[in-house]
Amino acid sequence: MNKVILCGNLGADAEVIGNALKLSVATTSNIKKGDAWEQKTEWHNVVITKRNDWLEEHLTKGSKVLIDGKITYSNKDGKYYTNIIGNVTVLSREEKKVKETQADFVDNDNLPF
To answer: Is there a contact between 63 and 9 (Cβ–Cβ < 8 Å)?
Structure first.
């Protein structure tokens, strides 16, 4: 059985490649080194073959996503690549416009402190 399930964040907006979407997904895990815990981030290349306008709009940098699919391997120009071909569920999305708008309303001259 070749099955992968990832829960992570997009490192960039989805990239359109023909009828597919290419995603860069970051996952983190905690690793104990001695008495301390360190956070390790790993990056995964994901290809979503069922492209649509809604996904393009909502798969933005920082969005939390759930990926389920399978691992594929390829060799191009002597380099080996690991990709995940699968489906995506958007768990939450980064609200870039909301954050920019909120920053515009802050008036530092009228703060009570």
So the answer is: yes
